[in-house]
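--- STAGE predict ---
source: upstream dedup step, 1 unique chain passed
mode: sequence only
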Amino acid sequence: MRTIYSKDKWSIKDASELYGVKNWGAGYFSIDTSGDAVVTPFGSDHGPRISLYEVAREIEDRGFSMPVLLRIENILGSQIKLLNETFRKVIKETGYRGEYRGVYPIKVNQQEQVVEAITQFGKEYSHGLEAGSKPELIAAISMMKNREACLICNGYKDEEFIDIGLYAISMGFKVFFVVEVPGEVDLIIERAKRLQVKPNLGLRIKLSTQAEGKWSSSGGDSSVFGLGMSHVVDVVDRLKKEEMLDCLQLLHYHIGSQIPNIRDIRAGAMEACRIYEELTKEGAPMGYLDLGGGLAVDYNGSQTDYHSSRNYSMEEYCWDIVETVISVLDRNNIAHPTLITESGRAVVAYYSLLLFNILDVSSFLPPPIPEKLPESSSGLLDNLHSTYEMISAKNIQECLNDALFYKSQARQLFKHGQLSIRERALADNLVQHILIKLSQVARHLKHVPKDLKTVNQTVYDIYYGNFSLFQSLPDVWAIDQILPVMPIHRLNEPPTHPAIISDITCDCDGKIDNFPDPYNERRSIMLHELKADEEYYLGVFLVGAYQETLGDLHNLFGDTNVISIHVNRDGTYKFIREVEGDSVADVLSIVEYDVRTMKNRLRKIAEESIELGLITPKDRKAIIECFFDGLGGYTYFEKED
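--- STAGE serialize ---
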């Protein structure tokens, strides 16, 4: 009764269209003829295709439980190559007389393996890093593999921060201090004189341009960071007074983390170029234009200016930036600067995905309607049954109104003791049957009643996934981020159940109920019937940006197991890093429990239970072993051996 797709007519193409993988996969993800989701880390037209289902099975064979954060290292290299070579191509074709130098903002994903891989893959392109704190700056310096790469220092800077950056300059690194607030310039000047190191300075400016989307407050006059025009003039005058204007080489701005509309990117670049031009007229040597972040990821695959998408390609992004800079600066023969973008999200989003298994399902489909209804003094059950029998396309609104009325009446009668719990349960079941039937009839209508559209959003099953939304996918909860989700196997079978996905925290917000769709908001996802003898695996894709570092310990669910693989050109792959997720003891220690003291307390409680005659010494041994094994166990659901 729930089947929407015909088994005979179902194809891999249908699966690809249903889950939109071709739209959001960027050539890295697709579905093979066996029905498995596959990754092509060198791009859709290059290299091998690796089954994610087979990888998941191998992970468990190695003794790691779900959930697992899977990192595919090669994708980082592919994205860095794509970004740099696209800029190089556009620079050559336009006759641009400057270079491109990308930098990766460490805050997007600070994991050591990520930064290590980016600097390694980016070495040939002089792809650098951006740091916004002392820990990030020290990590960045230690990871730099090319002294021609830029190291951009943003954020608040104290004396120690500045000294670390100056010492890096003295060792030959191309470090830029970006002045975010007016007072910073005095401290930089003072420390530079003290250490006798000439600093490389940049100015972060507040543009009047504001981008659309969730991060629009990053730009505009009310943005938190950056200098207004009067402050820019003050800094220039201060540098002139100290005879240090020759240190000013870079202009920086940032108008948003995920800019969906290319129009805003052009507008920001054009405004920044005018300020750059004026700074050169003031006598600053300049030479670098840092356009900040903003290169978006098309999470929902719609290729629009929706906040979870983008209406431009990588090539269009590069062309618009380069052509805008040329058009503004060539008017007054200003030398073309080295272009810098701080693309973090677009570099790392694709390379990580969260794998988890489904533990159970709460089905919306109720038990069958009994052949004979029990007698009820209220007549409520008969009324509901009659409503179910009379549903047709002509009276769909009337039947919906009746069902909702009787549903409310059943709850009132139960509350006042006029309906038994069995009658209440049967009434609820009848209402569910009515809603399902109404939903089926509505599929064939050109114009669906507004009320029924709302009802359709509640006609779904709940699939319980072995993960914590708050730990692994915090942006889904915090800012309603849409992330692609799909099964990683059985995609050659038609899915039959509309569903939402719940995590295993005891929190109603711990759910995924908004899914990518190129045309509409989609509040459920089609999933398969569970099989008794087979795990059902889902993947949440494009989670490499921010999700790995923003998670919290809601319900004390800790970090997941992390597995990194490297795919070889011949189609083989190797597990290059395995990081065990947090144990129960680990997360208790994080929230300041002393695990050793806790063990002693448990021993004492068990001993007192013997004295009270509640358990035997043999029972105590088993109980203590269970508690201590639990402390050493994974915080997520573990299958019994």
